């Protein structure tokens, strides 16, 4: 497992607004909590597959200070504002160490959706995972989550039904090692 640190990048979205995408920091905890609390009930339902209403303190802490051997979180903040607001979050985490495969999740605050932000966040995370030596990323999602399906297809993930739940699908991406 290679430890990689990537610099922040500022990108332009489809509507011309600019965001900075960077690795999460421990002092992002309050902003991250506000981000999840601010998602619409529909977005929360899709993100947590109906299971979570509020994130626990220790989950937020884990997200903000990921164990880099098996997890990483990227956040997006508006480049024009400096109020600490987070508008997008993308992360992977694995139970294994060393980490061969990891589960990813992504969410964009409702009024920043449909601008290409999730595409940028996941692309950045894929690059990070590949450089960290992870071989496979996957995501388990509701079969009715059509936006995630379009996003996953657009990014090149393959799709299969979840053998354990007919209402879910699994998106998978095999990562070619960096430099090959
Ligand atoms: C799913 C989610 C993350 C998508 O966020 P987003 O920032 O709106 O997504 P993007 O705009 O980057 O990308 C998806 C769309 O752009 C399209 N797209 C982006 N760039 C494109 C390109 N260069 N060419 C073609 N299509 C492109 C995708 O196909 C898709 O199409 P759509 O706008 O018709 O739906 C967001 O809806 C969300 O937060 N949902 C709630 C949480 C959730 O469901 N998370 C996923 C499960 S972990």
Name the average pLDDT: 92
Order of helices and strands: EEHHHEEEHEHEE
The first-level CATH class is given as: Alpha Beta
Structural class by secondary-structure content: alpha+beta
CATH level-4 homologous superfamily: Gcn5-related N-acetyltransferase (GNAT)
Q: Name the helicity range.
A: 25-40%
Bound molecules: coenzyme A
Provide the CATH topology.
Aminopeptidase
Shape: globular
Q: Gyration radius, to the nearest Å? A: 15 Å
Main attributes of the structure:
180 residues, alpha+beta, Aminopeptidase, 8-stranded mixed sheet, binds coenzyme A
If you had to describe this structure to a student in words, what would you say it looks like?
There is one protein chain. The chain has 180 residues and is an alpha+beta fold. It has one domain: Gcn5-related N-acetyltransferase (GNAT) (Aminopeptidase, 3-Layer(aba) Sandwich), CATH 3.40.630. The protein is built from 5 helices and 8 strands; from the N terminus they run E-E-H-H-H-E-E-E-H-E-H-E-E. An 8-stranded mixed β-sheet has the order 1-2-3-4-5-6-8-7. The chain is globular, with a radius of gyration of 15 Å. The structure holds coenzyme A. Coenzyme A (COA) binds next to helix 2, strand 5, helix 4, strand 6 and helix 5.
């Amino acid at each position: 497992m290679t430890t990689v640190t990537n610099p922040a990048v500022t990108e332009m979205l489809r509507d011309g607004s600019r965001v900075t995408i960077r690795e999460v920091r421990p002092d992002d905890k309050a902003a991250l909590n506000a981000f999840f609390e601010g998602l619409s009930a529909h977005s929360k339902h899709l993100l947590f597959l109906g299971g979570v209403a509020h994130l626990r303190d220790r989950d937020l802490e884990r997200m903000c200070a990921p164990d880099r051997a098996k997890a990483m979180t990227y956040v997006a903040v508006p480049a024009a504002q400096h109020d600490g607001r987070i508008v997008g979050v993308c992360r992977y985490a694995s139970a294994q160490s060393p980490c061969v495969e990891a589960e990813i999740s992504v969410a964009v605050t409702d009024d920043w959706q449909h601008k290409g932000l999730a595409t940028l966040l996941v692309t950045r995370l894929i690059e990070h995972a590949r450089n960290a030596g992870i071989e496979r990323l996957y995501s388990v999602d509701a079969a009715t989550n059509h936006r995630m399906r379009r996003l996953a297809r657009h990014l090149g993930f393959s799709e299969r039904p979840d053998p354990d739940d007919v209402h879910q699908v699994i998106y998978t991406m095999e990562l070619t090692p960096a430099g090959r």
